[in-house]
UniProtKB/TrEMBL annotation:
It comes from Mesorhizobium humile. GO terms for molecular function: ATP binding. Keywords: ATP-binding, Nucleotide-binding, Transport. Belongs to the ABC transporter superfamily. The keyword Transport applies. Residues 4-234 form the ABC transporter domain. This is ABC transporter ATP-binding protein.
Length: 238
């Protein structure tokens, strides 16, 4: 399970309306990419979905439960950030274990999950290192591993490749796609990069200035862009 329903979500910061009425349905197991120019509200929408930010109006339902009234530990969401957000003083292993320890997961179960996640993400050689002793790509894999061990039904990625160089971006993108195939979890992935959107998504949501311009598969958007903005952004002629 991991379906998401967003109903007429609006978000204002003071007088500035950043989300102007977002409606969206995400099915269990889908890989959905939010794409749009910098400042259009992608991160804000992701934070509202995660329950890190309250919407001004509207609702976010995960498997029918309103996120804003569900305690964080019960939401079944894990988020991966552009900046990794690892604890510098903890080893890779303890970065991955921390959230589970806090949730009272038994030690043997924590070991089991870290073993599986570190194998999936090729992190076994680095488990006793600290983040400063890792490359950017390795750090981002640790951040992804920390999300995986929580066994969320919904993964949220906010521009996870932005701080990596071109070669690592391709590798990490392929790893995320492989993770989706293995885990069959629902994933929402934010990017301003059209190539990432076209290669990863089952469904692309094109955002512009706080509104959805179009929702569709990569082929639908490419072949039948709804307007000039989508055509220009996705790169198809219209
Ligand atoms: P994106 O992720 O698409 O680049 P954001 O969601 O980060 O866009 O931001 C959308 C708009 O909302 C921007 O104009 C940004 O300055 C504004 N914004 C985001 N967070 C806040 C905040 N906490 N307070 C005030 N304005 C904010
Ligand atoms: Mg952003």
């Amino acid at each position: 399970m991991g379906s998401l329903k967003i109903e007429n979500v609006k978000k204002a910061f003071g007088p500035v309306e950043v989300l102007k009425g977002i409606d969206l349905q995400v099915n269990d197991g889908e890989f959905v990419v939010f794409v749009g120019p910098s400042g259009c509200g992608k991160s804000t929408l992701l934070r509202v979905i995660a329950g890190l930010e309250d919407s001004t109006s509207g609702r976010v339902l995960i498997d029918g439960a309103d996120v804003s009234v569900t305690p964080p530990a019960k939401r079944g969401i894990a988020m991966v950030f552009q900046t990794y957000a690892l604890y510098p003083h903890l080893t890779v292993k303890n970065n991955m274990a921390l959230g589970l320890k806090q949730a009272g997961t038994p030690a043997a179960e924590i070991e089991r999950r870290i073993k599986i996640a570190s194998a999936m993400l090729s992190l076994e050689p680095y488990l006793e290192r600290r983040p400063a002793e890792l490359s950017g790509g390795q750090r981002q894999r640790v951040a992804i591993g920390r999300a995986v061990v929580r066994e969320p039904k919904l993964f949220l990625f906010d521009e996870p490749l932005s701080n990596l160089d071109a070669a690592l971006r391709v590798n990490t993108r392929l790893e995320i796609a492989q993770l989706h195939r293995r885990l069959k979890a629902t994933m929402i992935y934010v990017t301003h990069d059209q190539v990432e959107a076209m290669t990863l998504a089952d469904k692309i949501v094109v955002l512009n200035a706080g509104r959805i311009e179009q929702i569709g598969s990569p082929m639908e958007l490419y072949n039948s862009p709804a307007n000039e903005f989508v055509a220009g952004f996705i790169g198809s002629p219209k």
